[in-house]
Design brief:
Elements: E1 4-8, H1 11-21, E2 25-29, E3 35-36, E4 44-45, E5 51-52, E6 55-56, H2 61-73, E7 76-79, H3 85-98, H4 115-123, H5 130-157, H6 166-184, E8 189-199, E9 202-211, E10 214-215, H7 221-231, E11 237-248, H8 256-267, H9 271-283, E12 285-287, E13 291-293, H10 308-322, H11 356-359, H12 365-381, E14 386-397, E15 400-411, E16 442-452, H13 461-471, H14 479-488, E17 492-495, E18 498-501, H15 503-515, H16 517-520, H17 522-536, H18 542-563, E19 573-577, E20 584-590, E21 593-597, E22 607-608, E23 612-617, E24 624-629, E25 635-639, E26 648-649, E27 652-657, E28 664-667, E29 675-676
Parallel strand pairs: 1-2, 1-7
Antiparallel strand pairs: 3-6, 4-5, 8-9, 8-16, 9-10, 9-15, 11-14, 12-13, 14-15, 17-18, 19-20, 20-21, 21-22, 23-24, 24-25, 25-26, 27-28, 28-29
Helix pairs in contact: 3-5, 5-17, 5-18, 6-14, 6-15, 8-12, 8-13, 9-12
């Protein structure tokens, strides 16, 4: 009997599904898209109602032949690509390529790759959702028109290799605008006064608040000294005691944007690194004792919905592992924004009983960290809220007022398992020291401190994703590729975690703002996203959406081409001589930051990494150690005498010696920069050498 054919995108996903379906099913992978617009031309027939001209992707010919052969011998074909616009479009192209009737019940989707989800999907196939396909086509055609019409102008007027796009241009503008705010910022001086008190053996502090019960700002040293000189002669009396209880609500489960933000803040991951790890967790991997299993639900989602089965499972887990006091009386329901695709779920573990520790030996460090983050957040979202006892003391010293805040944990609730990080550090709160009203305090010291207001912070990947989401720019699938694009084009570079615009980025942004205002306009781009959602919902016809956009856009393009003059960008010249032709090399920006290139290109194609000494001698030969970057852009450290000396390390060697064995101490290149000795720690903590 002929087998039924199931087509997915990746071999890993195919292996997981094959395990669940067993005999009678042949599961194969399309390796993503098989049909797309050609790169060599616009491929949109603007004279024929914007009809796309699709072709077979180069290199996919043999794969398509193989798929056709499998399809011909199959008794039934199921298209099981991802449950979103992109996945629906892949299924539609596969159906057309393989001669499958798109109106037949050939499409199956599942939010998680578990046996139950897969077998249920097979029982309930549906037709291909043409509205989803049209929404994907509309985005693809729209982005192709914008990119292929504006980019040639940038090539001609600025330099080759540049590009523009709906979402990438807005993202670049946000980063450039922030840089201009920073450059225009004028710092202002202000002062604080901290008082230190002692009660028994406990020290506690209070901060100057104001005068006569009203808040007063100290703008200069004289203001601060006047207060200090006055209160030094006074008694410090507790005038008010305000006690309350504060509830800290458990955070919602992850959606794509919040996962990317939290992984950026807590783990220092880029959006691309986060999504790469999440993709493999979703598609499935070999876990000791369990075989090939999918570990999380679909990771491109903006829905906070949790299935009834998952709620039942996690509530049972919380009750068993943490006790009834950590389990709310009823499941927590989180409100999803209107534009979200509620057919999806939030990102959660496929099976909450598969704990992070149970898979640690079977997965990579990145996969473990992302799974742990998702697992803990999901369990925490269904635990009871945390309670804190909070007290605020009003302390008077003559006519001036100080305030002391304190809190203690009344009930830890979800914080027993998980604490959400913040973009900015929260104000530190001391533990409660019990004080009585009218009590006189024992002053230990007064500390006036000078401060200056700080400019706005540069965007990190996490805060940029947050801004894009809040403004309605892009969708879950676009955040990571957008950031990758603006970095690879050289418009933006990473400086530690910060995103900093380059000179090229500022120039291109300036041109876009002057000549293509609608493309970089936040409201215009957000409204376009809403229109794409309307196409998906069947409320708007996709070709009419493109038609409304095209005519005014082309008027802008034609006008810009006439008005924009040639712009010369001069490369910054270094003092490094090209060892092939003798020219002074210039600085260039690439995907992984700055590098040196010969200005005689294309006659001379020589490039060099920028050598950055770290002030440390090689532990093996005492030559200087330099910072390097791998092909993937990851920083490591190596000896300048390479290849004669083989020393390389992912972690940074230091000049510090281990107090126990006298060996070289290394610094973990992660949050906290923890130092360790590889010999004494027996590699438990650390930085495996390359």
């Amino acid at each position: 009997m002929a087998e039924k054919l199931v087509i997915v995108e990746s071999p890993s996903k195919a292996a997981t599904i094959k395990k669940y379906l067993g005999k009678g099913y042949n599961v194969v992978a399309s390796m993503g898209h098989v049909i797309d617009l050609p790169k060599s031309q616009l491929a949109i027939d603007v004279e024929n109602n914007f009809e796309p001209k699709y072709i077979t992707i180069r290199g996919k010919g043999d794969l398509i032949k193989s798929l056709k052969k499998e399809a011909k011998s199959a008794s039934k074909i199921y298209l099981a690509t991802d449950p979103d616009r992109e996945g629906e479009a892949i299924s539609w192209h596969l159906a057309n390529t393989l001669g499958v009737d798109a109106n037949s019940k050939c499409r199956i989707t599942f939010n998680e790759i578990t046996k139950k989800a897969v077998t249920n999907a097979i029982k309930e196939p549906r037709e291909i959702d043409i509205n989803l396909v049209d929404a994907q086509q509309a985005r693809r055609v729209l982005d192709r028109i914008v990119g292929y019409k504006i980019s040639p102008i940038l090539w001609k007027k600025v330099k080759k290799g540049l590009s523009a796009g709906r979402v990438q241009s807005v993202a670049t503008k946000l980063i450039c605008d922030r840089e201009e705010e920073i450059n225009a910022f004028v710092e202002k001086e202000y002062w604080t006064i901290d008082a230190s008190f002692l009660k028994g053996k406990k020290k506690f502090g209070a901060r100057f608040f104001g005068e006569g019960g009203k808040k007063k700002e100290l703008l200069c040293e004289k203001d601060a000294k006047d207060v200090v000189n006055s209160v030094e002669k006074e008694k410090f009396i507790v005038k008010s005691v305000q006690k309350s209880q504060k509830k800290k609500f458990s955070p919602p489960p992850f959606i794509t944007s919040s996962l990317q933000q939290e992984a950026g803040r807590k783990l220092g991951f880029t959006t691309a690194r986060t999504m790469q790890a999440a993709q493999t967790l979703y598609e499935g991997m070999n876990i000791k004792g369990k075989g090939h299993v999918g570990l999380i639900t679909y990771m491109r989602t903006d829905s906070l919905r949790i299935s009834d089965d998952a709620l039942l499972e996690v509530r049972g887990y919380i009750s068993e592992k943490f006790g009834e006091k950590y389990l709310p009386k009823s499941p927590k329901v989180y409100k999803t924004k209107k534009s979200a695709q509620d057919a999806h779920e939030a990102i959660r573990p496929s099976d909450v009983t598969i704990t992070p520790d149970s898979i640690k030996s079977s997965v990579t460090p990145d996969q473990y960290k992302i799974y742990k983050l998702i697992w803990e957040r999901f369990v925490a979202c269904q635990m009871t809220d945390a309670l804190f006892d909070v007290v605020t003391y009003g302390i008077d010293a003559g006519k001036y007022n100080f305030r002391a805040n304190g809190q203690t944990v009344a009930f830890d609730g979800f914080t027993l398992l998980y604490t959400e990080s913040q973009d900015q550090e929260e104000e530190k709160v001391s533990k409660i020291v019990e004080l009585e009203k009218d009590e006189e305090l024992s002053l230990q010291s007064l500390s006036p401190d000078q401060h200056f207001t700080q400019p706005p912070q540069r965007f990190t990947e996490a805060s940029l994703v947050k801004a894009l989401e809040e403004m309605g720019i892009g969708r879950p699938s676009t955040y990571s590729p957008t950031i990758t694009t603006i970095i690879s084009r050289g418009y933006v570079v990473r400086n530690k975690k910060n995103l900093v615009p380059t000179e090229l980025g500022m120039i291109v942004n300036s041109l876009m703002c002057e000549h293509f205002k609608s493309i970089v306009d936040v409201d215009f781009t957000a409204n376009m996203e809403d229109d794409l959602d309307k196409v998906e919902e069947g409320e708007k016809e996709w070709k009419s959406l493109i038609g409304e956009f095209y005519s005014p856009f082309m008027e802008t393009v034609n006008e810009a081409e006439e008005k924009i003059g040639d712009i010369e960008i001069k490369d910054e010249v270094s003092d490094t001589v090209c060892d092939k032709c003798g020219a002074l090399m210039v600085y260039k920006h690439g995907k992984f930051g700055k590098f040196l290139a010969c200005p005689q290109f294309p006659k001379c194609r020589n490039t060099m990494a920028i050598v950055k000494e770290i002030g440390v001698k090689c532990p093996l030969c005492s030559s200087p150690v330099i910072e390097k970057k791998s092909k993937r852009g990851k920083i490591f450290f190596g000896c300048t005498s390479y290849p004669e000396c083989s020393f390389t390390s992912w972690d940074k060697p230091t000049n510090d010696k281990c107090p126990e064995c006298g060996g070289v101490m290394y610094e973990k290149m992660t949050r906290g920069n923890k130092k360790y000795c590889p010999s004494c720690s027996e590699n438990k903590n650390g930085g495996d050498k390359k």
